[in-house]
Amino acid sequence: MTQQQYFQDYMPDKVCFGCGTENPDGLHIRSFWQGDEAVCFWQPQAAYQGWPGITCGGIIATLIDCHCMATAMATAVRNEHRPLGSAPHYRFATGSLYIRYLQPTPMDSPLELRARVTDIKNERKYLLTCELFGGGEKTAEAEVVAFLVYRSDRPELSPLSFQRENNRF
C-alpha cells in the first residue's frame, strides 16, 4: 500500500492561507491524485460560515483557488514524469477565477473538490475546471486560469517583481 502524496507537502514556503501547511491560521487543504483528477476533502468549521450552516462564498473561492494552483503544479510535474518535490520547483499564481455558485454549500459534512487541467498554453498558462460538492450535491463549479510564475531552473523567466521578492531560490 502506498502512502497518499499531498501536493501541498511539496510546495515551497508553505505559508499560503488556503494551502500552507505551516500557516497556523490557514485552511490547510490537502490535494491528491485520484486517477486524472485532483481531489481534496475539507471539513468547514463554524468560523467559515456565511449564514448559519452555510459555507462562506469567500472561503469557497479560496478553497477552489488553492486547490487549482496546487493541481497546476502537480500536473506540470506529472507531465514531466517526475515525482512531486523533485527539481525544478514551480510556483503558480491565479490569472482568473470564475465561480458559479449553484446552491448553498452546507457545513455539516466534508466538502469535496475535484479539479483537472483542461488545456496548457505556451507551457505557462494552465486552464482548469473545478467542481465543489457538499452533502453529495454539486454546489459550485469554476473555471480557473493558473500562470506559471516561477521555475527554480529558469528564474530569469519570472516577472521581475517576483524575482526580486523570491531571490532565495
From TrEMBL:
Keyword Membrane on entry: no
TM region(s), chain numbering: none
Keyword Cytoplasm: yes
InterPro entries per UniProt: HotDog_dom_sf, THEM4/THEM5_acyl-CoA_thioest
GO MF annotation terms: hydrolase activity
Superkingdom of origin organism: Bacteria
Protein name per Swiss-Prot or TrEMBL: Thioesterase superfamily protein
Species name: Nitrosococcus halophilus (strain Nc4)
